[in-house]
Design brief:
Elements lengths: L1 E8 L4 H5 L12 H14 L6 E4 L3 H9 L7 E2 L16 H8 L17 H16 L4 E8 L1 H11 L17 E7 L2 E9 L3
Parallel strand pairs: 1-4, 2-3, 2-4
Antiparallel strand pairs: 1-5, 5-6
Helix pairs in contact: 2-3, 5-6
GO biological process, one term: regulation of phosphorelay signal transduction system
Protein name: Phosphoglycerate mutase
Pfam families: His_Phos_1 (PF00300)
């Protein structure tokens, strides 16, 4: 199998800049975020994708459009960001203060009113299955968000969903998942443009 997945994180938003957890709130790209999407367009120029899947959120769809793949894109609900529940719009620092817990993290603490990390892993598995469906080779672009893409990478290489905490991912970055013979591997990670 020679299918390669391109994980493309949307450009910067005000909340990604501040470190606020952003999932279901549809925050637009900043001017810098749109510039990063233009840099993605230049970086991906000439790349042909067999499929282009995007999160339904505006920041991912706009990044996809600016990068030049908007007309080919299909909305993939499974690429929605992790539902952070009560943490939505709050930084890790704010959540640590709220619970008086200096090591609070979405990766290790219950997400009140949101999704468990394992559930996000199940969604990521479904995205992988749909991305590969009907293909034996080619490239698939996935335009989405930091945590869902980190979890997707973890699931690709056989880690539990919480293994996504091991992969940092900048805004407007490109990572690729591929194969070494029959073994799934991370081919490149967190390719930025600065």
């Amino acid at each position: 199998m020679a299918v390669e997945l391109y994980l493309i994180r949307h450009g910067e938003t005000e909340w990604s800049l501040s470190g606020a957890h952003t999932s279901r709130t549809d925050i637009p790209l900043t001017d810098h975020g749109r510039q990063r999407a233009e840099e993605l367009r230049d970086y991906l120029k000439g790349t042909t994708f067999a499929k282009v899947l995007t999160s339904p959120m505006g920041r991912a769809r706009e990044t996809c459009k600016i990068a030049g793949y908007g007309e080919q894109a299909v909305i993939e609900e499974g690429l929605r960001e992790w539902d952070y529940g009560e943490s939505e719009g709050k930084t890790t620092k704010e959540m640590r203060a709220k619970y008086n817990k200096p090591d609070w993290s979405v990766w290790s603490d219950p997400i009140i009113g949101g999704e468990a990390v394992e559930h996000v892993g199940v969604r990521a598995d479904g995205v992988i299955e749909r991305a590969l469906d009907g293909l034996t080779d080619g490239k698939v672009a996935l335009f989405a968000h930091a945590h869902i893409l980190r979890i997707l990478a973890a699931r690709w290489i056989g880690l539990p969903a919480v293994g996504g905490k091991l992969f940092g991912l900048g805004t407007g970055s490109v990572s690729t998942l591929g194969w070494e013979r029959e073994t799934r591997v991370i081919s490149t990670w967190n390719r930025g443009f600065e």
